[in-house]
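Tutorial, part two.
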Amino acid sequence: MPRPSRLLADIRPLRECPPYRRLWTGSLVSSIGAAMTAFALTLQVYRLTHSAFAVGAIGLVTLVPTLAAGIFGGSLADRVDRRKLVLITSSSLAAVSALLAVQAFAGLRQVWLIYLLAAVEATVVSVDNPARRTFTPRLLPAKLLPAGLALNQLTFQVTLVAGPALAGLITAAGGLRLCYLIDALSFGAALYSVARLPAMRPVGDVPRRSLRAVADGLRFIVSSRPVAGAFLTDLSATVFGLPVALFPAINAERFGGSPQTLGLLTTAIGVGGVLGSAFSGPVGRVVRPGRAMLITVSVWGAGMAGFGAADSLWLALAGLAVAGAADTTTVVLRATIVQTSIPDDLRGRISAAEYVVGVGGPKLGNLESGVVGSLASPAISAVSGGLAAIAGAVVIGLAMPAFARYRRVEPGPAAEEAPAQATA
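Running the prediction step on this input gives:
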């Protein structure tokens, strides 16, 4: 039986690398604020329209800027100082959150304006996030990279727990407009942590023409079975098995419709994710991450199908928690495969593609679940989506045996010592 300490998350990156520790802390604070804005956007659109499709359409209006800005933003991140780029994008995101707060405080009640601001936010995030993803491999030695990626995922899962739960309480007490305002203020922590980082200048010769640079990144993805398989597996899970757009309708139909209960649905995913992250120690020792991804995606689909079939709130929350734990492991495995398989001069572009997959898939998933929920019922949409995610994992495993057999390559001594100058 493994020792308990080997099951727990490896926190050596936080102890041994002060720049990474500051970045992790600042990202955590800002991410909680962003989760509150996501909660407020969903609830505000549903209150104005009472339509699951209108909530799912948030994913549609943000999908195009996510794809376009994400792909070209990655080539930009490979050509400029990534630290300066993130300072600019974080400041811009703070301004967008402030505008969302203004429209809410003014009581404008214009769905088109909310969609527009959501699209602008998605555009900026699509440049910001890929650049941020390049920081961890620069700051940490290769031997600590899986642990750092797991801690980054822990940030996301804590956000899922704290963000919606706080947003539900704040909305019930003072209105959803306060969620937007708090998010705008939370960017101060993110800006401080990035400003203290060392310079993140480009490495290697990156083509000045954006289309050529993007094409180089796409060719690498297609030629790399581990990376292509990881992206396809993640898309299968999120396009078919992510029913977040259904949460307001299911909450209203089954659980009373209160903001606090709505917050609990998203929080349940985060609780499972936190548990998955807290016990992520073994993930860094997985030898065949591709096969492990196929398994965790299947567990994700089963949890979401269970949520859709549950009549009891506690059973629904349990299904979402199981899905959240599986998702955490899936994302860490995907990030480990991607970040250990690419050279630094392509890191911005491949990280952008990873971001497009990680964000574009859920947006398509919200649209898909909203359409099916409108045509059939929210429960049928959730159950069928979870089962489709399981079927997708089976198909990928059969169609891409090389991905299922992929073994992680351990870094050599030279790779382990490369980022040492960034740990001071």
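The two ends are 37 Å apart (CA to CA). In part three we will examine how such features are distributed along the chain.
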